[in-house]
Amino acid sequence: MGYHFHQKLASIATSLDANRLMAISLGTTRVIISSHPDTAKEILCGSSFTDRPIKESARLLMFERAIGFAPSGNYWRHLRRIAANHMFSPRRISSLEGIRQRVANDMIEGICSEMKMRGFVEVKGILQKGSLENVLESVFGCDLGLVHGDELGLMVKEGYEVISEFNWADYFSLGFLDFRGVKRRCHKLATKVNDLVGRVIVERRRNGVYENKDDFLSLLLSLPKEDQLSDADTVAVLWEMVFRGTDTVAILLEWIMARMVLHQDIQAKAQSEIDTVMGRNGPVRDLDIAKLPYLQSIVKEVLRLHPPGPLLSWARLATHDTHVDKHFIQAGTTAMVNMWAITHDPSIWADPWAFKPERFIEEEVSIMGSDLRLAPFGSGRRVCPGKALGLATVHLWLARLLQEFKWVPTAQPVNLSECLKLSLEMKKPLTCRAFSR
């Protein structure tokens, strides 16, 4: 299937008139795929698909003890409570705005520097650096240190490579065989992560300064004794926050900026909205985003056309025998929702290939999981717990970038070709020019 797995599955489902449900085999793995909101809701919101299938590489990288992949049960419910009540509560998200603003300032400086030195901007690098800085400070606080931060950044990069690697053992029982050295690389990386994050935890506990701090590590260490996690589980949870929180924001923003460069009229309309709301009141703040409906509609339209997790991040595992759309589904079957297929279906969306943010001004569509026509963060019990924080970051940074710069293409046209790895990335990274407004 290569890097267009989502597109090819959508094409097959359409050709077989199997959008509601299609069954395939990936090696010895039984798989059903939904490309329709109705069956997607049965899978994601039903009680039969409460677990996620976990790839061998994800298990070896400790994600089985983190929020995303932990099996349903008391431990997973405990993690979800901590996430909802503490880590991603509205108060916590608001308290982290200062970090988001500082990182936005750094990115703006970086863009000015690149334009001065090179005459163009490589957007991906700036967004990835800013996103990593934002996540590390949100998770560990400002005293993590450059050395630890750089080390963790390299570990995240290595983790993306190894977890995106095709591994035969995920689809066939190969026992001790280790094609492409995936097991060996995962063991080595997990050891490094355990060592580094473990040392950071020990240092923070030794200093004893984590009361009334807003970073996630201090939060976990200051929980009541009955709610606290073991050090091993704390490492897994924090590692997942860094790993998953870094790429999704940067990738989504790169897609948005590519669309802004391509659609100058839409960019100008968003900038006019920002100027009208802000006047001469300085940089956009979190509280201003609610007054920028057109900017929010741009984010929704990019999430529709270029969902960061179009397929692989949607997988569920049937924990017992069940039925979907009247079809019998055996326990142990992997279920996927092809959100890319749903968001490009002409029977669901008018003119689905066109970039039209106005469609979300004309009709209010929730993207938080209640409307399966567009649910980029999932739905049901396994909905992404960090969705509100991710959206707050994307909205603020987009507003700041549009407020500061006019974005125009270089001599090379913008290439919107897709490449599905861990997330849906631009195959050719965006290069453009940014002029101060």
UniProtKB/TrEMBL annotation:
SUPFAM superfamilies found in the cross-reference section: Cytochrome P450
Chain sites annotated for binding heme: 384
Cofactor or coenzyme needed: heme
Topology in the lipid bilayer: Single-pass membrane protein
Pfam families to which the protein is assigned, alphabetical: p450
Keywords in alphabetical order: Heme, Iron, Metal-binding, Monooxygenase, Oxidoreductase
GO CC terms: membrane
Signal sequence extent: none
Cellular compartments annotated: Membrane
Molecular function GO terms recorded: heme binding; iron ion binding; monooxygenase activity; oxidoreductase activity, acting on paired donors, with incorporation or reduction of molecular oxygen
InterPro entries recorded: Cyt_P450 (IPR001128), Cyt_P450_CS (IPR017972), Cyt_P450_E_grp-I (IPR002401), Cyt_P450_sf (IPR036396), Cytochrome_P450_78A (IPR051996)
PANTHER family: CYTOCHROME P450 78A7-RELATED, CYTOCHROME P450 FAMILY PROTEIN, EXPRESSED
Family: Belongs to the cytochrome P450 family.
Name by which UniProt lists this protein: Cytochrome P450
Organism of origin: Fraxinus pennsylvanica
Taxonomic classification: Eukaryota, Viridiplantae, Streptophyta, Embryophyta, Tracheophyta
